[in-house]
# Entry
Amino acid sequence: MKNLKIFKGIGLSLLLLGSVSCQEDFLEEKPLSFLSPENTFVDAAGLQTALDAALHGVMTQWNGDTRELMFNSNMSDASVVSATDKPDAFVDLRTYATPTNSRNNDAGRTRSFYADNYNHIKKANTVIDYIDIPEWPDGVNDAERNHLLGSAYFLRAFFYMQLTMDFGNVAFPLGVVSEARRDFKVFHMQGIWDQMITDLEYAVQHVKPKSQLPIGQAPKDAVRILLAKYYMLNERFADAERLMDDVINGGESQLFTDDMIPSGVTEIEVANTNNPNTGNPLPGRSGYAPVDAVNYLHMDRGAQKTSNPEGIWLVVNEPFVLGTQGRSARIRAWGPNFVSTNLGVWEPGTTRIGTDVQQSTSDARGRMMKKWGRGQGFARPTNYSQYEIWNFKGTVDEQDYRHKDLNWFEMEDVLYDNPSLRDEGSPFYMQPLRLYDDNGNLTCQDTIRCWYGYPRYKFYSVNQEQRPDRQDGGKMDMYIMRIAEAYLVRAEARFWQDNLAGAAEDINTIRQRANAIHMYTIADMQTEGIGAILDERNRELFGEEYRHDELVRISIIFAKTGKMAYNGKTYSISGNDIEKSISANSFYYDRMMEKNNFFRDEVPWATYNTTKYTMDPHHVFWPVYQPYLVGNVEATLNQTTGYNGAENNIEPLTHVVQPAGAPNEDPMRAIGE
# Structure
């Protein structure tokens, strides 16, 4: 393995190497390993180590309170960035969605979506490049070889889907970058998809099924779901439907329903009824909800999720197990910030904080924080997610398990528990929170961050190991893909083929499991079209899917097919540059203006009166952080269309698809560059 001295300013080559920092302190050359690839990757176990490193990249995107999964949702119709203490957040996109905004936290994660994904791709490319260093018993027909190669193809395609949905045309390394390079160029995204399809078609033949893999590894059905999405990008809708038939009928996973709940289980805890530190009861209502298929499916107790038949691909993250991920802190990310020292919920008629901010493991302090969790409100649902999708056919559906009492958190579940209210005899002490006082005045200045409901059943986990005084979410297993999504992907494939009855059937399978009041009819599908599928995805997969990327993918399909959307509009691709066409006019932007009330209405913040939500059509894709481009001095590495620097862009390269099953050539050399 080559030891490289990497200097400041090498741009994307640094990202692809992923081995050093740009800071001067890290320029000192240090040995990475005394092992060469020929010594490291001599067998399946060595290659699995590199594959696991790429797999860990997926888990880091899912796990944690401000990770990529959350930000992707916040750039969609489902939720928004609501870290209202950071005025340069990805909120006022006209002002702050720029190539020079260095934010990479709860207020924006475009940097890590770009840089980290290339680092993860490097690890997958390592497996692909070195797949034939071992002497496989059956040569290129060896089953273990081809499973590892197919798994690396899958993970690489997983990350390239994100890169193309988030940034459009991007650089396209297909091999390990073993030395500093400053000559990267972008490729048309269409060629990237074509290569990923070829690779995934190989992977779907060779990757092992779930029953033959450790939990946490990506199985064959995960490959099928990703390939189906790529197929639909290439208008191969029947092929996508066939793949979902294989997932749904294959027997490896099945939809979890009420009749599968273990005998004797009657309730599921979705909040801490008792102080997890002392075991003593906490005030207010019980945190136990009547058991149903949905809250049991998402229950975070023991290894329930890893054994549940619905799961296809999961993050395994058990408490008190060495080697698992850090705490998920999902309550912290998605829960409202009612516990705050400055802009929380006030006692009605005053500006005194109504809830106790004191962090303590004792029974005396922070009782509502222990019961409901210390949410920080980094991802706030839109009105569409919080209200509109539950009002179907004129009925607000609180029978639907995904929206029923306690499964769905409401602010009124919280009580005023600030000890100062008790000490001064306030009539509101230990009464439910109120949004308005008797005179109709708000009791919460920052309603964006501090007052909303959300599907708590998905995010609840007891914090047992770190900061048990906060209860903002401990370690938890998480679904990356489950079979409910396969039904919704098949519904989409059927919709594109005008099989509205079949699409409604798949949606209704999910709704029946959830005990929803109303079902979709063919007439509903004719009226709502893809909107029906997007609505059901949001009900079922809120906080689980890369929602922005799904909207962009669907936008590209609308533009490629010319099919009329439910809004009466049609979209198109002009020329061969999909990025430019989508950046000018897209279903994504129109959907955002329809469903995301914050961006549509340019809602201002109470914390910074100059900050408001703004968006223009080109924000469908995100800017590439400028320092990642400037060091690529031997070629032009394009900026995303519509952002400063894009005026210097050059024509992207067209990729020539390479056959799967063997290491790749560098695509630039492969076409004579």
